[in-house]
Every structure is written in C-alpha cells, then in structure tokens.
Amino acid sequence: MSDPVSRARIAPLAPLPAAPAPSAAGAADRFAAALAQAQSAPEARHMAPAEIALRGAVSSIARGERLVEGVIQAAKRGATFSNEQLIAIQTGVYRYTQELELAAKLVDKASGAIRQTLQSQQ
C-alpha cells in the first residue's frame, strides 16, 4: 500500500505528506476497490456479494488493528514522529475506529433482527 498511514507504520522516521481528510466518497471508493479485488480472487467465485463485502471489511479492520499495534510498538521502542506522521497516524486510527464502530452497529442490528425473528416464532 502506498497511503501515508502505511508508510508511517513501515518507516516512522521518514517525512510524510499530509494525509487527506476522510470523506464518504473516499470510503465508498475504497470499499468498491476492495470489493472488486475480493471478487477477482479464485475462491470468490463461490461467495455471495455480502460475504465478499464482509471479508473486505474484516480485512480492513485487521489492517487498522495492525497499524495501531505497530505504532504502539514503535513508540515503545523510542521512535519519534514528525507532525506529518502524527497526522497520518491520527487519520489511520480515525478510519480504523469508524470501521470498528460501523461493524459493531451492523452486528447489533443483525443480532436484534435475529432476536426479533426468534421471538415472533414463539
């Protein structure tokens, strides 16, 4: 990946350009790109679009978790970060938390729907 957040994790002492502000259009573009990439995988031929989207979301959340863990480990080793790197890290953490909150809401909605379905069958 060549986005500023990935570079911050790989090379914390290298100067980085300012990270762009997250936007809904950017998130939709990233989602569409992840979906297209997942659909092109050989095992994706037998998956439903929802499963492909879920796998993309899970991999994105895992990538965010690795970013946060990498930054914490670098800080523990005494790495110092420039202002640009700190902004890139903040952007990555913000994106990660937004994806995590969305996943939590989806799980909550799905469990509520299942609970309602089970109660209506009694």
Count of discrete domains: 1
Radius of gyration: 18 Å
The major pleated sheet works out as: none
What is the total tally of β strands? 0
Structural class: mainly alpha
Termini, distance in Å? 51 Å
Strand content: under 5%
User: What coarse outline follows from CA principal-axis ratios?
Assistant: extended
- Summed up, the helix count is 4
Helical residue percent band: over 70%
Topology overview:
Elements: H1 4-10, H2 24-40, H3 49-76, H4 83-120
Helix pairs in contact: 1-3, 1-4, 2-3, 3-4
Protein described:
This protein has one domain (4-97). With 122 residues, the chain is mainly alpha-helical. The chain has helices at residues 4-10, 24-40, 49-76, 83-120. It is extended and about 60 Å long. Helix 1 (4-10) crosses helix 3 (49-76), helix 2 crosses helix 3 (49-76) and helix 3 (49-76) packs across helix 4 (83-120).
